[in-house]
Amino acid sequence: MSFIDTDLQPRFPNREFTVDAQGIIKTETNTAELLGLISRFHNESGFELLDTISCTDWIEEGVLHLNYILYSYQHNQTLFVKVKLPRELKEDGTKRTVAELPSVSSIWPQAEDFERELWEMFGVNVVGHNDLREFFLEDWQDLPPNRRDFDTLKFVNDHFEFRVGREDAKSVAEERKRLKELRDMEKAKLSGETE
Amino acid sequence: MKNPDLPLEELKQIKGEQQLIEWMVNWFRKQSLWVLAYGTGCGAIEVPPTMTARYDAERFGIRGAATPRQADVMIISGYLSYKTLKRVIRTYEQMQSPKYLIGLGSCVTNGGMYWDSYNTVKQIDLYLPFDIYVAGCMPRPEALIEGFAALQKKISEGRADGCEKYEKNIEYYKANQKKIFGDKMLPSYTCDWYYSDGGTA
Ligand code: SF4
């Protein structure tokens, strides 16, 4: 009997669990149920640890795919709780999503940092968070930089200056070959003299 | 006694009446380069082996210093984000002159493989004056030691004048810094000789 049959399915009869090749258990939910579900996993099923919250921007499907990665020391099991969040931003210029994501920091205080990162890098609109401010960035005005519609190259060209290359821009490979030949010739000349 | 080691070529490079004294001072300087223990980017991994037993940079008088006020050399050891640049400038301004700046790796030189990244500096010599660049991604400790040797040569010839350049062209450097930091400029107390307010803010 697997862990799903013995522990998870009896407690969550209507929930669908899948297991992938690495033995990771996965289940999908929505933002409304998220907090209740995760706290039940934490309190009842022994998932004590929140490893991280991962986020992928699926621009084609119009969603931010969040994974809450939970781990249980008692059962040595990893559980991914998937949430798909619509990726549209609010109209009011705050550059955060319309959809709200409830904070899980009441269960795991360390989730505050993960959520700050989601907030600044993907523009996830986290609610119920005590300390929502920038984590890595400083005074960021543009779109959240890890969203795929943020054009890095354009941003770089607009804001930064590149070093202008040398005018005689030579190909490195050819230059090295030329120098090597020169050196070899010198060596050959030297050894010819000593003989 | 005639000293055959007296480097006449180096002496000739130094102008002015106090040639010999200048040369001696430079000689002392180049024998004890204290490096600020500070690392950014991948080079933060490459500098410790340079200092420890295997490559043992201390035989050249190169050793670590804990605070910027005791250090002579700062190594910018890799990609530098704009957030860090602010701190680096503050640190550099706190160092006592003569001070030298070494750029380690291609990221420092021209952005390297992070050329299209939104948060790293592409051309750091717009904001700080460099004395030596060491090319490579990442340069091995031998290359770094060679960079130090080149720096020592520059010092003994009296050409390592990064901090004088910074003081002389401070308008240029501050204007460039202002361009990217905008109204979030660094506090002025590390550079109070430039700001007229005496460095209060
Ligand atoms: S030059 Fe290469 S090794 Fe050095 S910081 Fe850049 S990417 Fe890293």
Describe this entry's structure for a reader.
The complex is a heterodimer of chains A (195) and B (201). Chain A is α/β, with parallel strands linked by helices and 195 residues long. Chain A has a domain at 3-138: Beta Polymerase, domain 2 (2-Layer Sandwich). Helix content of chain A is 33%, strand content 22%. Chain A is built from five helices and seven strands. Chain A has helices spanning 3-11, 31-43, 111-121, 152-159, 172-194; strands at residues 18-19, 25-29, 49-58, 63-72, 77-86, 100-102, 125-127. Chain A has a five-stranded mixed β-sheet, covered by helices on one side. In chain A, strand 3 (49-58) and strand 4 form a beta hairpin. The longest helix of chain A is centred in the last third of the chain and has 23 residues, at 172-194. Chain A is elongated. The model of chain A has no long low-confidence stretch (mean pLDDT 89). Chain B has 201 residues and is mostly helical. Chain B has one domain (34-191): Rossmann fold, CATH 3.40.50. In chain B, 40% of the residues lie in helices and 10% in strands. Chain B has eight helices and five strands, in the order H-H-E-H-E-E-H-E-H-E-H-H-H. The chains are: A alpha/beta (195), B mainly alpha (201). The A-B interface holds A 136-139, 142, 145, 150, 152-153, 155-156, 159-163 and B 82-83, 86, 109-111, 115-119, 121-123, 126, 180, 182, 184. The structure holds iron/sulfur cluster (SF4).
* CATH class term of chain B: Alpha Beta
What level of helicity do the residues of chain A show?
A: 25-40%
Q: Largest protein interface? A: A-B, 16 and 18 residues
- Residue-averaged pLDDT of chain A, rounded? 89
Domain count of chain B: 1
| Net shape of chain B | globular
Rg of chain A, Cα atoms, Å:
27 Å
How do you describe this structure in short?
The complex is a heterodimer of chains A (195) and B (201). Chain A is an alpha/beta fold and 195 residues long.
